[in-house]
Each structure stands twice: as structure tokens, then as C-alpha cells.
Design goal:
mainly alpha; 3-stranded antiparallel sheet; globular
């Protein structure tokens, strides 16, 4: 059974997902680029090939909103055009993961997350 904070985080993540997709569509970026890159952050799973501790750290590095915010800053402050669509795709990926219950990982194992234990 999900606790109220977890439900709230999932609703919040759904709002972030919708907003990221809306911004992406508003600027008319390519659907092909979106489909090509939407699963790209899952490359951060590779850390689990070493061990759960490294896996959690590497996975979490690619699944916090800080990375897409840095890209968004590059777009806004440095005028890097490709940074905006990539940051929106990355944000959408993170938000979608959180909606599904795939939170940030604990070092104890892949299924132990800040949103609770993954049961699927």
C-alpha cells in the first residue's frame, strides 16, 4: 500500500512529465528524436554490472533532475539549441520512471527505492 507522500510524488511526477512533453511539443521538436532518446538515460543501469553500490550511485546520477536542469541552463544562458529538447526528453524519462514507481535507488539493491520497494 502506497503512503500519501509516495502518491503525491507520483502525481507530481505526472505533472512534470506532462509539462516536459508539452514544452517539447510546443517548440515543434522531432518525434523521432524523442523516441530515439526517451530510453537513453537507462544506460545508467550499467553501473549495476559492477555491484549494487556502484549501480545505485551511477543510476541515481542519471535519474535526478539536476542533469536536465544543467542542460536547460546551457540552453538558456549559453544558447545551445539542442540542450532544450534533450533536457525535456531527459526530464520526461525521469518523471515517467517516478510515475511507475521507479525511484532513486538505495545501495542495498535495485528494487529498494526512495518510493518504496519495487514489487513488479
Amino acid at each position: 500500500m502506497e503512503t500519501m507522500p509516495v502518491k503525491f510524488q507520483k502525481v507530481e511526477s505526472l505533472a512534470i512529465l506532462v509539462l516536459a512533453c508539452a514544452v517539447y511539443c510546443h517548440y515543434g521538436y522531432s518525434r523521432s528524436l524523442f523516441l530515439l532518446l526517451i530510453l537513453a538515460p537507462d544506460i545508467f543501469f550499467a553501473g549495476y554490472l559492477i555491484n549494487p553500490k556502484v549501480g545505485a550511485r551511477v543510476y541515481n546520477t542519471g535519474h535526478v533532475y539536476a542533469a536536465p536542469v544543467v542542460l536547460l541552463s546551457l540552453y538558456y544562458f549559453a544558447g545551445v539549441p539542442l540542450a532544450l529538447p534533450i533536457s525535456m526528453i531527459w526530464t520526461a524519462h525521469i518523471a515517467f520512471d517516478r510515475v511507475l514507481g521507479f525511484g532513486l535507488k538505495y545501495e542495498s539493491g535495485f528494487k529498494d527505492t526512495h518510493l518504496g520497494k519495487i514489487t513488479q
